[in-house]
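Kindly go through the entry underneath: sequence plus fold tokens. Please state briefly how this chain folds according to its tokens.
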Amino acid sequence: MLSVEEKKVYMLLKSVIFHYHGLDDQEKKDLDKTANDLNAHDEYQWAMNFVATDYITAFDRARLFLNDIIGDYQKEKRIELINMVWQANNLKGYVTEMEATAMLKLAKDWNVQKELIQLVLN
């Protein structure tokens, strides 16, 4: 069972990446499903409010927030989070350049760039 903090991380990470180019219907459905699967409805609403506070700065603010928390996670957990968001983006059949750039920035922050590149190549 995930803690409230972990649920916030999952929901914010997906939300901010999906909002990077504008949230589409398929991404909204994926966020809804994730919130249901994790029993994270409050955290989902928190993440959506986080993004809505200032859409333009949402990624940079989320990056700071996530780096403060995820920097203490084990490497395997950081890889799992990058993989989760990569797989979620692939549900629609493609990943935009903006989304890929955002994920690369996070992977660099979390020192898992090589692992993300390996995921992309597979």
